[in-house]
Amino acid sequence: MVGVYYNPIQLLDHRATQKMKTMFVAKHQTLSQTVLSGWVALCLSCLFLSGCDRSGKRLVEKPVSNPLVQKKPKIVKGHLLAGSKKALLRSAQLSPADATYILKGFLYKATASYRLTRGRRVVKLKEKLRLAQGAKGDFHLTLTNSRNKGYEVIWTNKVLYQRMRYRPYRITSHNTADAFRWQQRSFGRWRSIVEIFGSQLALSRMGTGRQMGRNCNRYQITLYRDPQKPLKLKKGTAWKGPVPDLTRGAAAKKARTPLAAQGELCVDEATGLPLKVSFQGRYRIGTLKDVAVASIRLYAEFITRRDVALAPPEKVVEVKREIDAHDAFARKKPTFMLPPPSAEDLKRKRRRRRRRQRRQRRRRRRRR
After folding, report:
1. Distance (Å, rounded) from C-alpha 145 to C-alpha 113?
2. d(CA 315, CA 313)
3. Predicted confidence band at 43 (pLDDT cuts at 50, 70, 90)?
4. Of 163-172, 307-316, 328-337, where does mean pLDDT reach its minimum?
5. Closest Cα partner for 305 from 149, 132, 156, 141?
């Protein structure tokens, strides 16, 4: 006898049950294999059809557009700026990529001066900017200011060269997105002025003229005496909102009130691109209790219209990517990469400074 089955009827019943279980498992495995093969066939067909359209033709991968040259800029007619605030804002928001598409290479220069007066304290800053832009997206950006600082950026052959003032060039990136961010920094001053003064800017036509070999409309810039309906602006960076999000201190939440404005504006008749801007204005920051007055002067224009051939700099310093173990500050981030301090951090810093000053006074008294 086998196992513990002493009754022959029980033994036969056990063998029949085992046979039925074997048949059921075999049938179940066959069904599972059929379903699995069907899923595999469906996945292969999806992978094959993903590279074809409905007619069975192979799809061709389209080349990625160059962000440094805008293909379809949102233009505005130059004669509409005097009667429409939205048209003025749209004209001021044209980027360097739009200008590259319109002018096919150019040389742009701008000079801006800022003066902030708050009580007896006066802060001054003057900037000079030069942008040589090629038709295919290559550019050379130079910025210097009155505080003996500045930088230079060259984008050519899909390599980004950067240097601070009085320092050698170094390769910082091979990504087009980084070059696009530097290109956006060259523009934005006239855009910021329009967004700060808002709907209070009044434009009156002064006739037509020629600039850069193109027909342009000339306007005189003044300020409305009566308050106008404010423009709807999206707050963001310094080039997309009235006040930057990263403005330090309590100045970010204070209102900007225009006080005076005058100047001239020359825009392209076909596209609305500001070809020449001469502006001088003042605005108030804050309320009557805590008031600061800022004055701005801007002179910007496109000088020449030509395709600029840029060559890489002769001397380039190679930056080591390996961190030296003996350098104590190797893992410390540079200042420009750190986020701006919050209001609480500034308060803590002031408290620490006051405590330090108190301790120093106590020590001096004890010595006496």
Report:
1. 9
2. 6
3. low
4. 328-337
5. 132
